[in-house]
Specification:
Length: 205
């Protein structure tokens, strides 16, 4: 992966994802999580302070060692056990029907085979369990989409394979999830091409 991918990028992500302005979005997406939770693309643990009381434990899936190390203080301060339990959302080391909820924030953009990752999340969720998602992707407006397509190759090179044009809701429904709630919006203060977010809950039917 190289020094940039292994050491620099996780630190850049830690700062970019740690901005206080997105705290209200993290709080919203974590609402309703319960029981045994799997979080894919855990990063440096910025969602940890927002896990609701109904969560009993969290299995964190994160490939970047530096990201996990940067999460140390947040994990130590967590009110529930948080364990790094896997390295790749495309291959989850759990039995079928193991989890009550799943969480993914700004991660589906980066996982290389996102369809496989979503089918893995579905496999490990109990029937009727929910995936809570907050993801950036293809914008609702054609003008913004044009810029996203132009800038995507650069984005991928700079940010570890991050795509700008993935259709979040389409990917979830193609994977067999049923969307029970979704809010699609541009993030305040972020460039539109980066911040076309989908925040919602999908049922593993
Ligand atoms: C933009 S960051 C978001 C981190 C975190 N979810 C947050 O909201 O702060 C994307 C994360 O996905 C992780 N990632 C990349 N490939 C992955 C994979 N195959 N499986 C799981 N996570 C992956 C990256 O290491 C990074 O931590």
């Amino acid at each position: 992966m190289g020094i940039y991918g292994e050491h620099v990028l996780p630190r850049v992500i830690n700062v970019a994802c740690g901005m206080k302005t997105v705290a209200p979005l993290r709080r919203r997406v974590c609402e309703g999580l319960e029981g045994n939770v799997v979080e894919i693309g855990f990063g440096s643990g910025h969602n940890v302070p927002f896990y609701p009381e109904a969560v009993s434990r969290v299995a964190a899936i994160e490939p970047a060692d530096v990201g996990w190390r940067l999460a140390e203080k947040r994990v130590a301060a967590a009110t529930v056990p948080v364990e790094r339990s896997g390295l790749d959302g495309q291959s989850l080391p759990f039995a079928d029907d193991s989890f009550d909820s799943a969480l993914s924030t700004w991660t589906l953009c980066t996982i290389p085979d996102v369809a496989t990752a979503l089918s893995e999340v579905r496999r490990v969720l109990k029937p009727g369990a929910t995936l809570h998602f907050l993801e950036h992707g293809l914008a609702p407006d054609e003008g913004v989409r044009r810029w996203q397509h132009r800038l995507e190759p650069l984005e991928k090179r700079l940010f570890g394979g991050c795509h700008l044009t993935r259709p979040v809701v389409g990917l979830l429904t193609a994977a067999g999830f049923e969307i029970t709630y979704v809010d699609i919006f541009y993030e305040d203060g972020a460039p539109k091409f980066l911040g076309a977010d989908s925040l919602g809950v999908a049922l593993s039917a």
